[in-house]
Amino acid sequence: MTSLYVQVEAACAAAFASVLDGSDPIVRTSDHADFQANGAMGIAKSLGRNPREVAQEAAEELAANPLFSSVEVAGPGFINLEVAPEAVLKGLEAMGTSETLGIETAATPKTVVIDYSSPNVAKEMHVGHLRSTVIGDALCRLFELTGNRVIRRNHVGDWGTPFGMLIEHLLDLGEKSAVSELGMGDLDGFYRQARAKFEASDAFKERSRQRVVLLQGGDEETLRLWRVLVAESIRYFDTVYRALDVGMQEADVRGESFYNDQLDTVVSDLEAKGLIQYSGGAACVFPPGFTNRDGEPLPVIVRKSDEGYGYAATDLAAIRDRIEVLGADLMLYVVGAPQAQHFEMIFSVAKMAGWLNEPVEAVHVSFGNVLGPDRKMFKTRSGETVKLKTLLDEGIERARAALAQRGERDDIDHVANQVAMGAIKYADLATDRQRDYVFDWDRMLAFEGNTGPYLQYAHARIRSIFRRVEDGTEPGAILLNEPQERALAMALLELPEVIASTIETYSPSKLCTYLFDLAQTFTTFYEFCPVLKADEVAIRASRLSLCELTASTLRLGLSALGIEAPEQM
RNA sequence: GCGGCGGUAGCUCAGUGGAUUAGAGCAUUGGUCUACGGAACCAAGGGUCGGGGGUUCGAAUCCCUCUCGCCGCACCA
Predict the structure, then answer these.
(1) A319: part of which helix (H) or strand (E)?
(2) What would the DSSP string read from start to end of A165-195?
(3) What is the model's pLDDT at position A1?
(4) Do A42 and A122 have their domain in common?
């Protein structure tokens, strides 16, 4: 069963094809009808014909299609389309029997590698990781929902010069107490102490340098200590992921170090292809079109002048691994906007090297900053970065307080958790990811407006209807007599198209907007159309079906965003 | 200097493959209903879509230019 939109578009494309083959009918939902087709104007222009005439020709063909109950040409050549009641009912019926509510799964599933979250070992996860983690996880769920093979990748920062100082600090503390400190999640404290010693003591600095040499040289004891640091950090990250309810697992971790033994090959392969130029002792590739401040070509430094490797080399190795070993068709990098140029250059080099070829695609899914109420980067009052764990805990407390105000309950811990995570995630996902967004507890936790809690509550309220059925009425055949019933039906049928465009643009905010609109449309329906109080059994049964479809759509949509939909709130 | 992203109602944001009156939420005002657990509902006010120019029958949307904000621009990641 294809979605209603696809059916309408196909019908319009066919109708226009008899005027001009292969033209885009430009079908949109409309304020003046169910759909409108705007293709006539463009076609008329390219044919030098009168647009209304073109529209009229197509309209006549469309009028003969049983999919439509009304076809009208309006204005300069718009075709306004009303979908026939039978087609709407058929669509709802198919939706009701579909596991995915009519969302089509990919005919040829893609392997999608999604790189997100990517915290640093021995450093706290902070708000900066929130968006990557939340958006990345939502994209994973959306691609899974549509039948693709998703491989999550946590590109953890687990290598580099800071590890000399971190290992030395670990030794100073004694392995045991270091582990317990890290285990408690005080990663920032650990890092800061190491940093402070590094800056204050030349002796410590020298030890750290030596330690880096040992680490890179593969000294067993050093590696063992390094593994302790990594393991403790990853265990801690995992507690944050579990708290946030995101799908990233320990098994998805491929830290930078994972690619260490591939870096030489990256350089030698680039060299073999004649792409390497040496500049100041560093092995560079100069992708065309990138210049620095002085207008000179900007390099991707694959190997530094000290023979060490930087993140460019690691990213290139990772891209190869994802294509050649994992078989990626699509690679997403859910990383903040400041790295846009870096990824452009990396992708460019990967193409020059012949590693990244059509139709395989790499996309930097960039996002804006999280801002505080002052519209500056979100910081604590004392100007420090906000620990992610602290943020989540505060959210739970605030949600608990909000719920407590609404009445006593015994499952408040569980629901407060669901509401808090829903609120935090939704606030992040609902704003266009390119824009910065303002972090505001009061707004995100409100039960009114475009918020997570509002949608969760909307869902719970609808579910409650089913618990209050007293006469044994069950959802039954749908009848669409009232305009509010029909409006709700049309909104429900939009789901597949919304999912498609959400995925196409990697923009979960589109799904958020849809779910909020749907909840509003339902409210209007619910206000005008009594469900349990309707006189006739058939009407009650029909409206219960509409309630059920709406609740299912909200639940599925929220779930695709990584947000739980409690039965009761 | 070059480049990227943003500038839409008091506030937070939708809407940018051109298209009929620019939408929603919050806030404000006025109504409505013996409230399916009011997430109430209906209605009103409120916008030079950052400024200017251009293309077009038609521009928030496309092009040019200016402006403001954030960010990036070689060996940190």
Answers:
(1) helix A311-320
(2) HHHHHHHHH-HHHHHHHHHTT-HHHHHHHHH
(3) 62
(4) no
Asked if residue A93 belongs to a domain, the reply is no
A24's tokens: 């885009």
| Segment A521-531, tens digit of pLDDT | 999 999 999 99
Identify whether A102 is part of a domain: no
Residues A398 and A475 in one domain: yes
**CA–C1' A460–B63 (A):** 49
Residues 6 or more apart whose CB falls under 8 angstroms from that of A401 comprise: none
The complex scores an ipTM of 0.94
Classify residue A119 as exposed, middle or buried by CB count within 10 Å of its CB (0-12, 13-18, 19+): buried
Give yes or no: residues A399 and A515 share one domain: yes
- Residue pair A102/A522 in contact by the 8 Å Cβ criterion: no
pLDDT digits (tens, 9 = 90+) for A213-270: 999 999 999 999 999 999 999 999 999 999 999 999 999 999 999 999 999 999 999 9
**CA–CA gap between residue A449 and residue A427 (Å, rounded):** 11
Name the residue closest to B40, CA to C1': A527
Query: Is A296 within 7 A of strand B by CB distance?
Result: yes
Q: Name which of A37-46, A47-56, A177-186 the model is least confident about.
A: A177-186
Could you tell me the pTM of the whole model? 0.95
Question: Which of A512, A533, A510, A514 shows the shortest CA–CA distance to A522?
Answer: A514
Q: Please report, rounded to whole angstroms, the spatial distance between the CA atom of protein residue A181 and the C1' atom of nucleotide B59.
A: 60
